[in-house]
Amino acid sequence: MADMTSTTSAVFIPELWSVETLRQQEAALVVAPLVKRYDSLVKGRGDTVHIPKVSNLAANDKIANADVTLQSPTEGERTINIDQWKETSFLIEDIVKVQANYDLMAEYTHKAGFAIAQAIDSDILGLWNTFTNPPVGSYATNITDPVLILALQYLDEANAPLEDRAMVFAPKQKATIMGLDKFVKADFLGQYQNPTPVKRGPNTRYLWGQIYGTPVYYTTQVETTAGTPFQTHNICFHKEALALALQLAPRTQGTYWQRSLGWLVTVDSIYGMAGLRTDHGVEIKS
Q1: Count of beta carbons in the 10 Å neighbourhood of residue 160
Q2: N or C end: fewer C-beta atoms under 10 angstroms in the chain?
Q3: What are the φ/ψ torsions at residue 224 (nearest 5 degrees)?
Q4: Strand partners for 49
Q5: pTM of the predicted model, to two decimals?
Q6: What pLDDT, in 10s, does the model give residues 83-105?
Q7: CA distance 99 to 116
Q8: Contact, 51 vs 276, CB < 8 A?
Q9: 86, β-bridge pairs
Q10: How far is CA 252 from the centre of its chain?
Q11: How far apart are CA 111 and CA 88, in angstroms?
Q12: pLDDT digits (tens, 9 = 90+) for 155-205
């Protein structure tokens, strides 16, 4: 007996393609809006931003019948070099554009824009090593409550304002925090009727909640260093610890490239970043 199977009848069985694409998941980009920005200062000109420092003055005793004590501090500066130019480009040949069942131009333009934004975010997070405070915690060890308290203590001792502080953790450390009762349980928070981070979940895709009044963000963009032990460089900082000068916001340009018979699309950006108030940031090891 000869049965008709899916193998013998394969020519009659169609293969179906979804009208939707499955885009690669994208990391949460959180840091650029949290740092000091000098975008407007560098629009269309310049390659270096000079930021003069102003020292504190001392209060002196006034001695009768004597002149006041004049003070003349020697000031320094911080600089931001506009030395980063990143681009992401692709070319879609006519035959692909004509025959494809998808708007590949739109799909890959979106991905090109994300690649540039991701590069900016990564570069800022890489400035953790400009912080002058001692790092807290230990590599390959989960963050604990005393570690968080010590990080905030360093910012307090540097007179960093309470406003505009933030912590940025790798997702594993967000999970660790979720296991600390005092940050999530209503009987610790005194919010029996209100949503807690456990009942509500994160405030957004990026913002988990607050610890000691400081917003906590999480992202896979947190910089890591391979080795033994594996090093994760979470950060706690005030806005002015880090600076970004975006001279050319990510722009998209497209042109028909006759030589290749296709559309060439490029997304690029020009920017610089630097540690600004370097005592306003702390690396939290994990």
Answers
A1: 23
A2: N
A3: -130, 160
A4: 80
A5: 0.83
A6: 999 999 988 888 888 777 778 88
A7: 29
A8: yes
A9: 269
A10: 22
A11: 9
A12: 999 999 999 999 999 999 988 888 877 776 544 544 544 554 544 444 566
* Three-state secondary structure call for residue 89: strand
CA distance 43 to 264: 26
Cβ neighbours of residue 114 closer than 8 Å, sequence gap 6 or more:
26
Structural domain boundaries in the chain? 32-49+78-247+266-285
HEC letters along 207-253? EEEEECCEEEEECCCCCEECCCCCEEEEEEEEHHHEEEEEEEEEEEE
90: Cβ contacts below 8 Å, ≥ 6 apart: 108, 112, 264, 265
Q: Is 179 exposed, middle or buried (0-12, 13-18, 19+ CB in 10 A)?
A: exposed
Residue with token string 């600390």? 180
Per the structure block, which two tokens stand in for 192?
């029996």
Tell me which amino acid residue 94 is. Answer: D
Do residues 280 and 130 make contact, with C-beta atoms less than 8 angstroms apart? no
Give residue 177's pLDDT: 85
Structure-token match 């692909």, residue found: 96
Strand bridging mode 214-218 / 165-169 = parallel
